[in-house]
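Title: [Solved] VOC domain-containing protein 3D structure

Original question kept below for reference.
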Amino acid sequence: MKLEHIQIQTSNIKETAAFYQDILRLLIIENDSESITIKVGNSILKFIENPQFKSIYHFAFNIPTNKLDKAIEWCKDKVDLITIEDQNVITHFENWNAHAVYFYDNNGNLLEFIARHDLNNAQTEEFSSKSILNISEIGIVNENPLELGNQLIAEHDLSFFSKNNNSEVFAAIGDDEGLLILVRPNRNWYPTQTPSESNKTEIVLKNNENIIELKF
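Solution (posted by the thread starter after getting help):
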């Protein structure tokens, strides 16, 4: 499953454009007074301005399986990586066979670089913004994650992520290429103390050559 296009909100388009263009060095493909559209590898990330918006999103970017250490070095003069424990910034998701680091954007959104070792995507080039492969996760907040997951599976021929222990509190739809992370409201976004909130999100995903449009 591939997350082709994600549309979310920001309270400040100008600051968001500056962060993604000047800090993360990503390509802006459309920019006006009310929205900004950014190319993130094979995915598109679009922000719509809402001056009253005060919440945050969580989303992740896939990076090459062999480039997490280089990504950490690349981040040093750009963003502050979130410390997990004992000055360590790396999380090992054993069941998912992945390692990840976390940081914030200008909006306070929780961003993640994740290296998934079951994907054949190693690179020899130096790590740069061009190494960011795609949007690999988007968090969706719902009172009944498992019920929502089963509904999406029935309506769109999707499937639960086989590596995840899906539950009524936390569930994942998709695969290593792309995941919908379904959580209950007020569950802290790992590894922070920031509670999850339901926010307007639009998604275009591709699954088995089928294009699926979702609005939450």
